[in-house]
Amino acid sequence: MNSLNTFLRQTSMFSRRVKPKKKSSLVRRFQALLICLGVAIYLISVAGFWISSNHVIQSTFKQQTMSWISALVPQAKSLFISQDFSSLSTVEAITQGRGEVGYVRFYAKDGRTIQAELDTGLTSVEAIPTFDADIFKDYTQHQLRVAEPLMQEVSLWPSLIQVSIPIYEETSGDALFVDGSSEVIGYVDIGLCYGAYLGLLVESVLFGSLFISCVFLVAAVAGRQLIQRSLRPLLELREPLDRLARGETDVWVSHEGDEEIVAISNALKSTIGAIKLRDAELRRLADYDSLTGLINKRSFDVVLENERKRVIKEHDSSALFYIDLDQFKYVNDTLGHEAGDRLLVQVAEMLKSRMRSDDVVSRIGGDEFIVLAKSVDREGALEIASAIVKAMCGFVFAEQGKVFNIYCSVGISLLEDNQCTADEVLSNADMACYTAKSQGRNRYFLFEAKAGANSRLDIGWSHRIAQALSNNNFMLHFQPIVQVDESDMPSFEVLLRMLDDDGGIIPPNMFIPIAERFGLLADIDYWVIQRSMEQLNLLNKQGKKVCLYVNLSGQLMDDPDFVERVLELKDELNIDARQMVFELTERAAVASLKAASIKMQKLRNHGFSFAVDDFGSGFSSFSYLKHMPVEFVKIEGEFVERIVDDEIDRAMVKSMIDVAKSCGKKVVAEYVCDENTFKMLVGFGIDYMQGFYIAEPASEPDFDIVVE
């Protein structure tokens, strides 16, 4: 424990000692860059100035030296000829005024013996270089005659140049045949120091550097101020950016400053403008229906709740109208979605024009509208509902050369001084609309509390169904479908059963209508499809190849994700699509034939098959059968179970089989309940049969079915 406390204290002390990293500054970076650039330019300039000045000094110095030597050579020649070196006054006179002369030595002809020496004290004895006469051995007679000096730099500091001069004497030859020649009689070695010139150069460089440094310092300070002033508008953008980051869009941005700053400011203003437009669009999408421009369900819920509170507070009453179009799906499937959208827009405009300015019209999805009429009693609500139904009866939708009469069903619910919540009022109007539809459509119905008891019961069942989906309180049963002529893989129809709280079985006719009423059939269908594929996967692993017939509802055909979800399940469970047949009732298929056909064809392309169920129950079965993308036709069981005793049913079943086969479909007969029915269907050329005579549904597929 002590060690832990010591470690924590050390850690705390260390954390206190760690200083936060200093933030970088754009001004300091620019200033450092300018300083480095200035120093580099200065050093390069000084180096160039030094080299060029040194070269000029040396060139000028050498030119002056040559002029001085031309005066020294005759005096030196006289000294060597006379060999009288006791007095060097003449040489001293020549060197006077030339402060760069360090020493003058006179060497004998052998180049080693010093015959005379003049030392000015500029050069120490140790610094005087050794003279070597061999450097003139390659000289020509002309070079000796003109006494051409040889200059060489001995050291850079103290800047000593050694000047060596051969002294010659002319000798005479034969006047007729031999030219005169030059003979070296001695050498003069001179040391010249031009350090004084370099000293002046150094002083000039130092003075210039000091002056430039002062100028550079002033320029750096002025440059920093200039940079700060130039970047100040950029720093001023920090506040609007911070406000923008906090979600504020009412931000003002200055457009002053240099061209680059103005460009950044303009870009920021453009960004702010785009964000404002986006926010406005998002608010519009959040509160309004993008197609009709009416407020959406989310906004309407707020309006309805506020109106409910007002009604209670002021002891008033208002009315809520739930409107559902009766022919919208037919128009949508016949003419396409674009025509359906135009129909919805026209209906929305018609409803808005019929209602008062204080009333609220909303589209809550699909072909469903809601109207809230404020300060309306029961009689007034009935009058408004009647007017809406009459207006829709007189409404004509013309599209693509066709004319459609669009009707509607209206459910009415009153907002009165009671304890109903907004959701309950909306649910009551929805149930009233459903009642109006069930009574024949193109009418209205007022929700009454007593009459709503059954509807309340339906709501309870809907919650029960949703809970069963969540808790897997459903189970599958399998009824065999036998093939008459060929020996194909065994086939079974998948039948759904619901379990009650005690584990008992609830038949489909108890919960399917309620599930359809509350839009739960699609979820049930997906549950059945997934469990059926899981069963296929299990049977395949056991080496039992079967084909399952799975029923689909019309609601599933309205789901845009239907095809993708089925294919995802197929790939996930590794199912052969040829082992599954989807059954779709004739009414569901015809109700949305175009949309259903497209989805069916996509799945058929992946190997799935389709069957039209309850064939014969529709009023136009034969006309639609030709265009349905199905492989199987299942005849409505009510016809099949009476073919032995009823001649009309017998003739209808036979004609259905003949027509289906002429369309290239295989035919399945349901409700085969006895041997006579079985034999009669065989005589009609039926392909498949199922019913209690063959086998009853069971919780597991029965592979031991024998029918004779």
Overall description:
The chain has 708 residues and is α/β, with parallel strands linked by helices. The protein contains 23 helices and 21 strands. The strands form four sheets. It has an eight-stranded mixed β-barrel, surrounded by four helices.
Mean pLDDT: 80
* Total of domains: 4
**Count of DSSP-assigned helices:** 23
CATH architecture title of the largest domain: Alpha-Beta Barrel
CATH topology of the largest domain: TIM Barrel
In whole angstroms, how far apart are the ends?
88 Å
Largest sheet: 8 strands, mixed, barrel
The share of residues in helices is: 40-55%
Question: CATH homologous superfamily of the largest domain, by name?
Answer: EAL domain
The chain-level structural class is alpha/beta
Shape: elongated
Radius of gyration: 57 Å
| Unreliable residue runs | 11-18, 174-178
Number of strands: 21
Tell me the name of the CATH class of the largest domain.
Answer: Alpha Beta
User: Which percent band covers the strand fraction?
Assistant: 15-25%
Give, in spatial order, the strands making up the sheet with the most strands.
13-14-16-17-18-19-20-21
What's the structural blueprint in terms of helices and strands?
Blueprint: H1 2-17, H2 26-82, H3 89-95, E1 101-107, E2 114-119, H4 141-145, E3 150-155, E4 160-171, E5 181-193, H5 195-236, H6 238-245, H7 259-287, H8 297-314, E6 318-325, H9 328-335, H10 337-354, E7 360-365, E8 368-373, H11 378-393, E9 396-399, E10 402-405, E11 408-415, H12 422-438, E12 444-446, H13 453-471, E13 474-483, E14 491-499, E15 505-506, H14 508-517, H15 521-541, E16 547-552, H16 554-557, H17 562-573, E17 580-585, H18 586-591, H19 593-605, E18 609-615, H20 621-625, E19 632-635, H21 637-640, H22 647-662, E20 666-669, H23 675-684, E21 688-689
Parallel strand pairs: 11-12, 14-16, 16-17, 17-18, 18-19, 19-20, 20-21
Antiparallel strand pairs: 1-2, 1-5, 3-4, 4-5, 6-8, 6-11, 7-8, 9-10, 13-14, 13-21, 14-15
Helix pairs in contact: 2-5, 9-10, 15-17, 17-19
